Amino acid sequence: MSIAELQAYGYVGAMVVLVFISYGYAYHLYTKKKDASGKDYEEYSNMALRDDITDTPVSARSEHKKK
Amino acid sequence: MENRPLEYDYTVTKMFMFMTIVLGIVGMLIGVILAFQLAYPGVNTILGEGLAEYTNFSRLRPLHTDSVAFGFTLSGIFAAWFYIGQRVLKVSMAESKFLMFIGKLMFWLYAVGVVAIVVSLFMGITTSKEYAEFEWPIDIAIVIIWVLFGISIFGLIGIRREKSLYISVWYFIAGFLGVAMLYLFNNMEVPTYFASGGVGSIMHSVSMYSGTNDALVQWWYGHNAVAFVFTVPIVAMIYYFLPKESGQAIYSYKLSLLSFWGLMFVYLWAGGHHLIYSTVPDWVQTMGSIFSVILILPSWGSAINMLLTMKGEWQQVASSPLIKFMVLGSTFYMFSTLEGPIQAIKSVNAIAHFTDWIVGHVHDGTLGWVGFMIMAALYHMAPRVFKRELYSKSLMATQFWIQTLGVVLYFTSMWIAGITQGMMWRAHDEFGNLAYSFIDTVTVLHPYYTIRAVGGLLYLVGFIMFAYNIYKTMSARPVEEYELQNASPMGA
Ligand code: HEM
Ligand code: HEM
Fold first, then answer.
1. B11-193+202-487 adopts what CATH topology?
2. Domain tally for chain A?
3. 3-state secondary structure of B490
4. Fewer beta carbons within 10 Å, N or C terminal of chain A?
């Protein structure tokens, strides 16, 4: 097999894998709806809406550290 | 001092806002001059034959592209980072003397860099690579500035209170990393003095790549400069400013995550579309075309997400000129990311390449999307950093309509000009002789060039109105904290 053929097969292979990963990610997001820490992904929008320095963080860092 | 409640510190934001406005005026003014030069060649020697060296089209063109892209746009991005970064991470720059110092240092080095670039380009010192014209000493300075930007981003992330990173922060990080990688690789160069064994100039340099390889690296860079300067950080801005100004949560946060990864993966492979029918391998061209078409999906993913964020809230679009800027901005984003893939199809590119249609595409993206978003960002930030209401809502609305008209005149005239040009260049008789000579196209295009120049002038006029509005905001009615929650307070 020439280097060009190898490249071509490698390229197609890489595409297939990456397409699977991205669809897998979409499937994961929409079926699980919540991330590993149990937060609904949509709650993260509040990071922009409630962003005064005195507002409570969506998931505070110190809280996390204590665990 | 001790008992004052903690507040966000916008010192560096203000500095970069100022820079955005100054470089915007300079860059767009040069753009307008260029446009008039193309329509009326006499403008090339407007200051007399003696100064023609400094006023001709070829000397000014890189000054336009670099001052709008790396001056106006980048300063706007920096201003937005130092604003959004603090807020979504819930940490103030005032809490870290170190980060404050780095931010200010970055600004001043950047200012020195700007002066060096303007002077050297006016003198005609250039590597002649589009969007990478700067000679090696400036390149080194740029790398240092970029490292400082990186320290600012990751430093702020390091001391944050909010554990998760908001989607805009992802986009800022991606923009930072993307430009770092591209800039380094494309600017690998050796001063001519060393390359030639002591004959050439020490100020000039030669690229480490040549021929087709140089073209490949250049457009891998060039295209991704579009990606990581004109797209990624601007998406970061709209993901923050539109929800914040309208008080609406992003329509779908999940979709924003998906579009992010889609964009990151696809963009890097699309650069081949700048080299269609050139000497680069055929598969690179085909890959460039295919990935360009796929690129519609993640691009529209973000844009539609933004438009849907306004679902049920369209009265806000009607009543607030600031929201109008952002909604039209994301519409133009959709528009140019549909137009781009069409131009990337091989048979279309055969007509479009080298013509004004490309220039039209460039400016519906940069004027309609990048320019509008940056102005909207500054409009949203101004009342918050100055703690005053925006000077005039009606002035803003007038500006919106003038500039929209400007953009429409710009891209429609360039479409007609470009397609006419492309068709005329390739027209031939039954024996294969070309039907037209070059000057025939020039004659036909003259009216469209004039229309474009007028459109550009309108946009510049609007930008000056914007600058005035921000300037007057600095002394407008002071506002209370609660008025700044969502919709920006505006005077009549
Ligand atoms: C899906 C997204 C996009 C695709 C597939 C795309 C595709 C293209 C194509 C095919 C060209 C012409 C290459 C040639 O024949 O010379 C081009 C040029 C260009 N595009 Fe896009 N485009 C996209 C989005 C954008 C956006 C959003 C902007 C700016 C805001 C932009 C800015 C530019 C610039 C500056 C050039 C000119 C480069 C040069 O020749 O100097 N593009 N694009
Ligand atoms: C006041 C409005 C503006 C006018 C009148 C204007 C005019 C022009 C002109 C005449 C050219 C040269 C086209 C050619 O060589 O045929 C040009 C190129 C370019 N302009 Fe502008 N411009 C304006 C604003 C902007 C802004 C705000 C941006 C970016 C944020 C921008 C980005 C560019 C780029 C990237 C190119 C190079 C395009 C290419 O190589 O295909 N322009 N502009």
1. Cytochrome C Oxidase; Chain A (1.20.210)
2. 1
3. strand
4. C
pLDDT digits (tens, 9 = 90+) for B69-118: 999 999 999 999 999 999 999 999 999 999 999 999 999 999 999 999 99
* Whether B257 and A54 lie within 8 Å, measured CB to CB: no
Q: Which helix (H) or strand (E) holds B468?
A: helix B438-473
Tell me the whole-structure pTM to 2 decimals: 0.95
A56 in a structural domain = no
Note whether A49 contacts B249, CB cutoff 8 Å: yes
Query: Closest Cα partner for B173 from B145, B160, B154, B148?
Result: B154
- pLDDT band at residue B131, thresholds of 50, 70 and 90? very high
Mean pLDDT, all residues of chain B? 95
Which of A48-52, B138-142, B198-202 ranks highest by mean pLDDT? B138-142
Using one digit for the tens of pLDDT, what is the confidence trace for A21-51?
Answer: 989 999 999 998 888 888 899 999 999 999 9
The secondary structure of A22-62 as a DSSP string is: HHHHHHHHHHH-B-TTS-BGGGGGHHHHS-STTSPPSSBHH
> B250 vs A45: CB contact, 8 Å cut-off?
yes
**Whether the predicted pLDDT of B190 surpasses 60:** yes
B92-123 exposure pattern, b = at least 16 Cβ within 10 A, e = fewer: bbbbbeebbebbebbbeebeebbebbbebbee
The per-residue pLDDT for A65 is 47
Q: Give me the residue spans of the domains in chain B.
A: 11-193+202-487
Interchain contact, A42 vs B262, CB within 8 Å: no
- CA A1 to chain B, closest CA, distance in angstroms equals 18
Q: Are strands B205-207 and B189-191 parallel, antiparallel or unpaired?
A: antiparallel
A28 inside domain: yes
| Any domain includes A51 | no
Nearest-atom index, ligand 2, CA of B358: 41
Angstroms from A38 CA to nearest CA on chain B: 13
Question: CA of B163, closest CA in chain A: separation in Å?
Answer: 4
For residue A52, being part of any structural domain is answered with no
Scanning every residue of chain B, which has its alpha carbon at the shortest distance from the alpha carbon of A55?
A: B90
Q: Could you tell me the residue range of the domain that residue A38 belongs to?
A: 3-46
Which residues does chain A have within 8 Å of residue B301's beta carbon, measured at their own beta carbons?
none
For ligand 2, atom 10, which residue shows the shortest CA distance?
Answer: B35
